[in-house]
Amino acid sequence: MNQTLFFAPLLAAVMLSAPAHGQETETETEKGFSGEVRLGFESTTGNTDTQSLAGAVSAKYLRGLWEFSGRISGSGRQDNGVNAEEQYHSELKAKRHYGEKNYLYGQILYDRDRFAGVTRQLYEIVGYGRQIVKTEKQELNLEAGVGVRQTRLLDNTEEDDAVLQFGGDYHWQINDHVSFKQEVTVNNGSDNTYTMLLSTLESALAGNLSMLLSYRVDINSEVPAGSKKTDTKTILALGYKF
Q1: Which of 7-11, 32-36, 170-174 has the lowest mean pLDDT?
Q2: What's the rounded Cα separation, in Å, for the pair 177 and 175?
Q3: What's the pLDDT at 178?
Q4: Spatial separation of the C-alpha atoms in residues 140 and 180, rounded to whole Å
Q5: CA distance 160 to 4
Q6: Is residue 24 in some structural domain?
Q7: What does pLDDT average to over the chain?
Q8: Widest Cα–Cα separation across the chain
Q9: Of 33, 37, 143, 149, most Cβ neighbours within 10 A?
Q10: What average pLDDT does the segment 27-33 reach?
Q11: If DSSP codes are grouped into helix, strand and coil, which group holds residue 14?
């Protein structure tokens, strides 16, 4: 049976179901909509060694026990009218909280890099998360999930497999103006293990404006001959929160 057809109804149930009437308690998340737009300079190493402009948009919506978030980012460069870099990342995630620390989540991830050994990866994941640390200055969440992945390689061959996902995010509010965030995701499948590490240092400037320095590492355990397993991305950007 097609793995995507098996997981699609489960993913849809997690992401689209409305909370039952009367279940909301004092552990509800705060309600509201927020987001951020970023634009900056990017330097990459690995399958592409370029410097280019990069942009990202993220948003979050909180309603009762539910939390919906999305993120889209991309970068590109042309040399003499020819594409030298083209990368996109998008993510859609829904969380359903149970009590103060536990939640279930559904997630769709899409990564595309025309010049990498793995040119495209699409994930559909469902899983469980738990808040491990929550203080005034620090927060740590860990997650584990299962799902399916569709992969396209540089030679245009395609692979479908099931994956186990492990991940987490750590946030440290260093002071009133500076914060640090670390995100880790590992998607382990039979054909390939993909690991993403993202570190971000953010400093508030004035009002809703901030400056960010981020460093991202993408690692694929199996790539076609002639391609590199590791790509890095360093970004210096301005961000505007709304």
Answers
A1: 7-11
A2: 5
A3: 97
A4: 12
A5: 9
A6: no
A7: 87
A8: 61
A9: 149
A10: 65
A11: helix
